[in-house]
Amino acid sequence: MNPFVLGVDLDGVCGDFTEAFKHVVADELGVPVESLPTNRSWGFDEWGLAPDTLGELLRTAAVKHRMLAKMEPIVGAVESLWRLSDAGVWIRIVTHRLYVNWSHAVVVADTVAWLDRVQIPYRDICFLGAKPDVACDCYIDDAPHNVKALRASGNQVICFGQPYNTDIAQPRMDSWDEVEDYVLHLAANGGHQVQIQLPGFPVHVDRLASVQRPDPS
Ligand SMILES: [Mg+2]
User: Fold this and answer.
1) What pLDDT does residue 194 have?
2) Is the bond preceding residue 171 a cis peptide, omega within 30 degrees?
3) In this structure, CATH architecture of domain 5-14+71-209
4) Which of 62, 98, 173, 215 is deepest in the core (most CB within 10 A)?
């Protein structure tokens, strides 16, 4: 067996981080949600937050609001990851959520609880401080600095399209349908065994239901 390993980032790729964080910031600062544009830069410049405030709000979002356990999945991510996994692709979750000094216990517990709740399949998971290479055949990430660093060290990286990465070179994809197709072809062309599901078969995303953890709220 020589599985094709796909390194999958969570925030901004599988989970709608901007939308979830927007509600936390609106609540904490007492401002309307509509005043925080979705079309934002990586540093949230459009939200008018000082660097210290941003750091504190990110910590508050994780620890007080338990945002990492609650965010909505990005459209198509769950279904595509099941199809890729069923085709034989090894799903490796690669998250750099430990890059700040949040409670690691909360971050790790809420992350795996979230993966179970939204039914994302994975074989293993890496919690990283920085974002080094973790031996994947291909990565998918949305953070401009991660995409650039991984590509600079010779890795195959799909940039998942977000407003803050429009200047990143191809491959850059806005939908999980595109990602799924691209990864399957990459795996097949690289000599890996992939079994593409026949069209018309439903994707069962409820196979993790028996291991669901309680909602932390
Ligand atoms: Mg990300």
Assistant:
1) 83
2) yes
3) 3-Layer(aba) Sandwich (3.40)
4) 62
Distance from Cα 143 to the centre of ligand 1, integer Å:
5
For this structure, is 9 an active site residue? yes
State the distance from the centre of ligand 1 to the C-alpha of 13, rounded, in angstroms.
6
Residues with Cβ within 8 Å of 166's Cβ and at least 6 positions away in sequence, in order, are none
| 11 catalytic residue (yes or no) | yes
pTM flag (> 0.85): yes
Cα 61 from Cα 165, distance rounded (Å): 23
Which of 11, 110, 141, 142 is labelled catalytic? 11
- For the chain, the domains span 5-14+71-209, 17-69
Distance 58 CA to ligand 1 centre (A): 14
Active-site residue identified among 9, 16, 110, 142: 9
Write b or e for each residue in 159-173: b if 16 or more Cβ atoms lie within 10 A of its Cβ, otherwise e: bbbbebbeebeebbb
